[in-house]
Amino acid sequence: xxxxxxxxxxxxxEVVASRLDLDPGAVxxxxxxxxxxxxxxxxxxxxxxxxxxxxxxxxxxxxLLAARLGAHPxxxxxxxxxxxxxxxxxxxxxxxxxxxxxxxxxxxxxxFCRGRDIGxxxxxxxxxxxxxxxxRQFFSRGELRAYRALExxxxxxxxxxxxxxxxxxxxxxxxxxxxxxxxxDAPPGWSLRSFSPAPGHTAALAVEPRGNAQG
Length: 215
What we know:
Blueprint: E1 4-7, E2 13-19, H1 24-31, H2 36-43, H3 48-69, E3 78-80, E4 86-88, E5 97-104, E6 107-114, E7 118-124, H4 131-138, H5 141-148, H6 155-173, E8 191-195, E9 201-207
Antiparallel strand pairs: 1-2, 2-6, 3-4, 5-6, 7-9, 8-9
């Protein structure tokens, strides 16, 4: 299945959704683009399902980046930021292309932006027995007030809406504030958008304000 565009809030931002449950031939083709370190990481997954999801997600990321860089997928050089956030290696970031990836089960989202940090998160919307306890522990005061104000029938979706927005923002920053989830809301100026990329799922996109980008 070819990736499909799920959301395009503005011209310099793209979000692409794709299934990860591809046929073996497609998986093998994507795997052929991975570098040795990626193959080793794939091999560390105990379950075949998780290995396949990693290989497909990484291969699709290479395909999507290559299309935007005018390169071959295997020639794309990937690196990690200070907190482990994937990025293009120095010297290969044509046009200051930044990206982020999230997946829930066999649904993956790939977000791209030029010149600004970006984060994306997707979750399956399913009842979570301890959602209220998780909200008390990890939501900010403002988020917790808004969550508690929801009608009971709205709380499942509401929980994952708040959660994905917080996670998308953290991922845009690079994951460095994961120990303080409840201590903040996204600051003014950041673009935070919630959307449904597929039935039964909710997602959020966080984009750095123009003029704040560090390059």
